[in-house]
Amino acid sequence: MIPHFSTLFSLATTAKPWPERERRTEFHQVDYDEPHRERTQKILAAHPEITELFGPEPKTKFIIAATVLLQLLIAVWVKDQSWAVFLITAYVIGATANQSLFLAIHEGSHWLFSKSKFRNKCYSIMANIAIGIPYASTFAPYHLEHHRYQGHHGVDTDIATEFEAKFFWSIFTYLSNPLRYEGIIYVYTDFILCITSISCTPRNITKCLQNDLLLC
Predict the structure, then answer these.
(1) Rounded to the nearest 5°, which phi and psi values hold at 150?
(2) pTM across the whole model
(3) Residue burial 20-32, b: 16+ Cβ < 10 Å; e: rest
(4) What does residue 190 show for φ and ψ, rounded to 5 degrees?
(5) Cβ contacts of 182 within 8 Å, gap of 6 or more
(6) For residue 6, what pLDDT is reported?
(7) Environment class of 112 (CB within 10 Å of its CB; exposed 0-12, middle 13-18, buried 19+)
(8) What distance in Å separates the CA atoms of residue 18 and residue 34, rounded to the nearest whole number?
(9) Nearest alpha-carbon partner for 74 in 61, 99, 91
(10) Within 13 A of 145's CA, how many CA atoms are on the CB side?
(11) What does the alpha-carbon distance between residue 41 and residue 14 come to, in Å, rounded to a whole number?
């Protein structure tokens, strides 16, 4: 039996009012393989021209450098501004730029910066500089396991742990506004993913991770 994705996130889209929703006590279980591989094969069979889009994008490293520089320059500028300007800048510009860098690190985990794995790691660490939390070096192996073992509880770190599901369910079940619940989840997604990854399958500290820690 392969545990499917946690019902924790899907409950916010149900039709029942929030207080009336059924409280789940376990993950939803299915006995079939995850659908992505089969769907990929069907798409490629129907549209083989898609393969022409595969491969590294050389421009990405320049976009990363520009985004990191933007973040660093804004950090210097905003320190002398009012709290209102600081918060608006952090929300509108900083969060947008950081999300772009998060996605860049994701692309790097699929070796889409360069054909060289070493250069991919370097560009991922460069993207990590402005984020402040050193995770680029460890994201790749965890993310590739997510694709390889999608839906396998305890290996796929995109699935909530049992503790995580119970913890958030117990605190936020009876919030009057489901959007507020989802907002809290999205705000802490990266922190949760970091803790989940470490607790599920801890890894040794590599040289790349050491460099990541020093830079961030």
Answers:
(1) -65, 125
(2) 0.70
(3) eeeebeebeeeee
(4) -65, -40
(5) 9, 12
(6) 40
(7) middle
(8) 29
(9) 91
(10) 18
(11) 31
What phi, psi does 5 have (nearest 5°)? -60, 145
Grouping H, G, I as helix, E, B as strand and the rest as coil, residue 150 is: coil
CA 150 to CA 12: how far, in whole Å?
23
Give pLDDT < 50 ranges for the chain. Answer: 1-19, 176, 179
Sequence length of the chain is 216
Read off the tokens for 77. 């500028």
Instruction: Say how many C-beta atoms besides its own lie within 10 A of residue 129's C-beta.
Output: 18
SS3 2: strand
Orientation of helix 95-109 relative to helix 117-128, angle to 10°:
160
**Amino acid letter at 80?**
D
Please state the φ and ψ torsions of residue 30, each to the nearest 5 degrees.
-130, 160
Q: Quick one: pLDDT at residue 46?
A: 94
Question: CA–CA separation, 211 vs 134, rounded Å?
Answer: 9
Contact between 197 and 138 under an 8 Å Cβ cutoff? The reply is yes
pLDDT at 12: 40
Euclidean distance between CA atoms 30 and 127, whole angstroms: 38
Question: What six digits make up the tokens of 196?
Answer: 């989940």
Query: Please, are residues 126 and 107 in contact by the beta-carbon 8 Å criterion?
Result: no
Cα–Cα separations (whole angstroms), residue 26 to 8, 29, 82, 166, 190: 10, 9, 47, 9, 23
